[in-house]
Amino acid sequence: MTRITATSRASRLRGRRIVVPMLLTVALLAACSPQAEPTPSATPSETPRATSTFTPAPSPPPTTAAAPLRGTEMPIGEASRPALSAKIDNQIDARPQWGLDRTDIVFEELVEGGLTRYVAVWHSEVPAKIGPVRSIRPMDPDIAGPLGGIIAYSGGQERFVSMMKKTELHNAVHGGKDDRFMYRTDARQAPHNVILRADAIVDHYDALDAPAAQFRYSPSGWAPLFGRASKGVDVRFSPASERNWRWNGEKKAYLRSQAGKPDRVAGAGRISAKNVVVLEVDIDWRYGDIPKTVMVGKGRGWVSTGGSAMGVTWSKKSRDSRIVLRNDAGTEVRLAPGNTWVELVPKAGSVTVL
């Protein structure tokens, strides 16, 4: 058995006293020595994501455009053509007329003898033929002036022809340079038999400007919103000229009668309209027995649309300005999209809204 003597125990204690301070010294020196900067790790390179090469297909070009004289849509290739206005006969021997079922706007005016004639306007649809075409009257430049394009008529007094030729419209007069577009039909007796090749003359003068809008439109018109329910309207230009318009809910249109009988179109059905606008007008008798409807001015009127009617005021500032319809608040009234008949009824006549 090993015996530990006092001497050996003291030697080991002295060795521990030496070792411990040395370890502390090494630790302190290590703590105080400058630390090496860590080597930065390499930043991983980012591979950019492949961007999409998908390109949306271009939208197809529009195929329709707003029809300025109806508020509907029409083929875009036809929207730029000029309007065709024509003086159309309404004497009993001229009925039924050709092309009145395709019009955008028709103006009915008083002429001599208490009878009426039309300034009918085509743009959205142009039929092959229209007529019978008759002579102009002194108010026709004020009616057709804002429309531009072509005005067709069979002649007239030189003073009235001169007034029309001062407008910006192209005058197509029977017996003139555009006679190749007109002919007399054997189906009627002269002078109620002059026919115009409507589509041919519009194609020939297609470089003329398209018409500007004459009225404002909204999806259902303003009469159903702000007017009252109405069966239709009766107008009387004179004791010899009574007109009736009746709302037909099935056809969504007003149907026209004249002298108590349905008013029809040659080769087609009954004359109808989406809007019936009645304007109360003054008559200027400066031309003797030929009445001139006063178009430049203002007055009261009525708009019938969609089985409802409302009172309006109308105004027209000049020969070439359009007719503006306003309600009692002074806001411009909007018609329903579709064709319009404008009845220019003298104050001596009568208007009955049913």
From TrEMBL:
Compositional bias ranges of the Low complexity kind: 36-56
Domain of life per record: Bacteria
Residue span, DUF3048 domain: 79-206, 233-342
Database matches in Pfam families: DUF3048 (PF11258), DUF3048_C (PF17479)
SUPFAM superfamilies: YerB-like (SSF159774)
UniProt keyword annotations, A-Z: Signal
Signal peptide: 1-36
Residue ranges of the TM segments: none
Region described as Disordered: spans on this chain: 35-69
Alphabetical list of InterPro entries matching this protein: DUF3048_C, DUF3048_N, YerB-like_sf
This protein's name: DUF3048 domain-containing protein
Organism the protein comes from: Microbacterium marinum
